[in-house]
Design a protein that fits this description.
By secondary structure, the chain is an alpha+beta fold. The chain is built from five helices and eleven strands, in the order ββββαββαβαβαββαβ.
C-alpha cells in the first residue's frame, strides 16, 4: 500500500490515478498510422516532462510525440502539446480524454497522470477531424485497459494506553474496521497509531468509538495526513 507525505492540503480527500509502476502502453493502427499511447503516473510537472523526453529518445524516429497531463488532487495543473500536429488536433483531445474519463458512474476525478501518444505517420492524411478522433481514441482505449487505483487522504492519529490494555484495544479497533498501522511501546505506556479517512465526521465517529471501548480513559490525538493507494478500480 504505497504511502507518501502530503504537501499543502487540497479540497479533495480522494481521487483516482494510475497504479504505481513503469506505466502502461497501448497501440492503435488507424489508416496505416501507428498511435502508441504511454500512460504513467506522474506526481509533478518534472516527472511528466521527463516521460515525454524519455519517449522522444526511445521513439526517436517517430514524427510526433504529443502529450497531456493532469496533476494534483484538485486537478489544478493541466497541460497539453500538439508537438507539430495541427493546433488543437492532438494535445487538447488527449487532455479531454483524461479529464472526462469516468472512474465511477458520474465521477471524473482522474489525476496525477501523463499520456504521451507517439505517432508514426502511415502516409494517409487523416484531416483535422480524423486526428482529433485518433488521439482521443488512443488515450481513451489505453485508459479502458490501464490499472487504476483510488487514492485517499488519511488523518494520522495516536492513542496512548497502558501496556496491559494495548493488545485488547488494538484487536477491538481492528474489529471495528479501523486501520491500525502499528503500536509503539514506551517505558510507561503504549501508543497505538491509526489512519482514518480525513473527514471530520469520520474522526468524530472514531473518537466516540474509542471513548466507548476505553470507558473514556483514552483520547484520540490528531496528527498530520498522508495519501494512500486504497485499492484497484
Amino acid at each position: 500500500m504505497p504511502v507518501d507525505a502530503v504537501s499543502p492540503e487540497s479540497r479533495t480527500t480522494a481521487y483516482t490515478t494510475l497504479a504505481a509502476g513503469d506505466g502502461f502502453r497501448h497501440e492503435l493502427e488507424i489508416k496505416r498510422s501507428r498511435f502508441i499511447t504511454v500512460l504513467r503516473r506522474t506526481p509533478d510537472e518534472d516527472s511528466a516532462r521527463s516521460l515525454v523526453s524519455a519517449l522522444r529518445k526511445e521513439f526517436h524516429d517517430a514524427r510526433h510525440h504529443c502529450s497531456a497531463f493532469v496533476l494534483g488532487p484538485d486537478r489544478g495543473v493541466q497541460r497539453s502539446s500538439d508537438d507539430g500536429e495541427p493546433s488543437g488536433t492532438a494535445g487538447l483531445p488527449m487532455l479531454e480524454a483524461l479529464l472526462k474519463r469516468e472512474t465511477a458512474p458520474g465521477v471524473t476525478d482522474l489525476s496525477d497522470i501523463t499520456a504521451v501518444v507517439v505517432r508514426y505517420f502511415g502516409g494517409i492524411l487523416l484531416g483535422a477531424g480524423g486526428l482529433v478522433r485518433a488521439y482521443s481514441d488512443s488515450v481513451s482505449s489505453a485508459l479502458e485497459a490501464a490499472p487504476l487505483v483510488r487514492r485517499r487522504r488519511l488523518r494520522l492519529c495516536t492513542v496512548r494506553v497502558p501496556h496491559a490494555s494495548a493488545g485488547r484495544l488494538e484487536n477491538e479497533l481492528r474489529a471495528s474496521g479501523f486501520l491500525v498501522t502499528g503500536t509503539d511501546y514506551a517505558a510507561e505506556s503504549a501508543v497505538l497509531r491509526l489512519a482514518l479517512p480525513d473527514d471530520p465526521a469520520e474522526v468524530e465517529q472514531a473518537a466516540a468509538r474509542l471513548a466507548a471501548l476505553t470507558a473514556g480513559s483514552a483520547a484520540l490525538v490528531l496528527g498530520g495526513t498522508e495519501w494512500v493507494d486504497a485499492g484497484s478500480e
